[in-house]
Design goal:
Blueprint (H helix, E strand, L loop, with lengths): L7 H7 L1 H14 L6 H14 L3 E5 L2 H11 L7 E5 L5 H8 L3 E5 L21 E4 L11 H11 L2 E5 L7 E2 L2 E2 L6 E5 L13 E5 L2 H10 L4 E3 L2 E2 L10 H31 L14 E2 L5 E4 L3 H10 L29 H9 E4 L7 H13 L3
Parallel strand pairs: 2-3, 2-4, 4-5, 5-8
Antiparallel strand pairs: 1-9, 6-7, 6-12, 8-9, 10-11, 13-14
The structure holds pyridoxal-5'-phosphate.
Length: 366
Amino acid sequence: MSIPFLDLGAAYRELQSEIDTAVARSLASGYYIGGPEVDAFEGEFAAYCGASHAVGVANGLDALHLALRAMDVGPGDEVIVPSNTYIATWLAVSQCGATPVPVEPNARTFNIDPDRIEAAITPRTKVILPVHLYGQPANMDPILAIARKHGLRVLEDGAQAHGARYKGQRLGAHGDVVTWSFYPGKNLGAVGDGGAVTTNDAQLAHRIRVLGNYGSRVKYVNDVQGYNSRLDPLQAAILSVKLRHLDEWNSRRKILAKQYLDGLSSASLVLPYVPNWAEPVWHLFVVQHEHRDALQKDLTDEGITTLIHYPIPPHRQQAYSELQIAGNVFPIAEHMAARVVSLPIGPQLLAQDVAKVIACVKARGQ
Ligand SMILES: *Cc1c(COP(=O)(O)O)cnc(C)c1O
C-alpha cells in the first residue's frame, strides 16, 4: 500500500456534495467575473482572518506583487526577504523592479531571524517581507518593532499558513498586508489558481483591488496602469465551502503532527521546533537528516512519497544569477536545502499511514 504526499482527490470526495452544490449555484448565477460568490468569500475570509478587508486576486504570486505595487515599491527599492523561502516571494519583488535582500532564518524555526534584519536595512529598504514558512508563524512582534523604528512597511507571505496563530491571534493583519495563495495543495486550496490579500488598511485594500482590475475604479476609466488579476467566482464558491472546514482540517493536521513528533522523538532526525507563542497549521511536516537523500530513497522504496521544500535556495537559482551572490553567504539556507525532507501530511491522511512512515524511519536504525 502506497502513501501519497497529499491526496487532493480524497479532499474533494469528502466535501463532494457541498462543493458540487456551490459550483452549480455559481454557474447558475450568471456572474463569471466578480459577483456574489467573490463578494461573499472575501467577506468570510476577512472575518476568518480577523482583518477588515480581503481582496481576491488570481494567485499568491500576484497577491505579493500587487501588495508591493500598492506600497509603491519600484526600481531602486529594496525588500527584505527570507533566504530560505519559495522563490515566489523573491519574484514578486523583482517584478516591481526592486531588489530582494535576503536575510537568514532562525535555524530552529526556519523563519526569518529578527536579530539579523537590522543589519540588512539600508536607505533604500522599503518593506520587510516575512514568510510564515511551512505553516508556522514568523516572530512578528520584533519584526513589527524594527519596521516601526525604521519607518518600513511589513508585508506577510501567508501562502502556507491559513489559520495559524501568533500569540493567540490569527494571522491576517499583524503587518500592513498579508498575502494568501489558494493553490490546490495549500491548507485552504481551490481547484485551480487563486489568491487574496487581507489588511486593516482600507486605502491599501482599495489600491490592490484597483491594480488587479486594470487600474480601474469605474469601468473604462483607468487611473493607473494595472493588471488583470481577479479571483474566479467558481473558485470563490468552492473556497467558501472549504473555509467552513478549515479549522477542522487544520486540527487533523495537528493531531498527525503530534503523532510524528512523539513517534520520531528517538529517531536520528531533527524534528520541527514550535516556539511557545506559535500555533502552526502544519502545511508541511519538515524534518532534517544528515543523509537526507538516502532517507528519502528508503521511504520511496516503501511506497511513501516525500518532497523537498526546497532543494535550491533562491540565491542559488539560475534565475537570480544577476544578484551575483557568491560563495556560502547564506549557510543556514544552504544547510537546510541539503537536509530537509517533508513527510506526508494532510487532512485525509490516516493515523495508520503516519504510523507506517514512523515505523519505516525507525526501522532504518540510523
Ligand atoms: C505557494 C506559495 C506562493 C505562491 O502562490 P501561487 O498561488 O502558487 O502563486 C508564494 N509564497 C509561498 C511561500 C508559497 O508557498
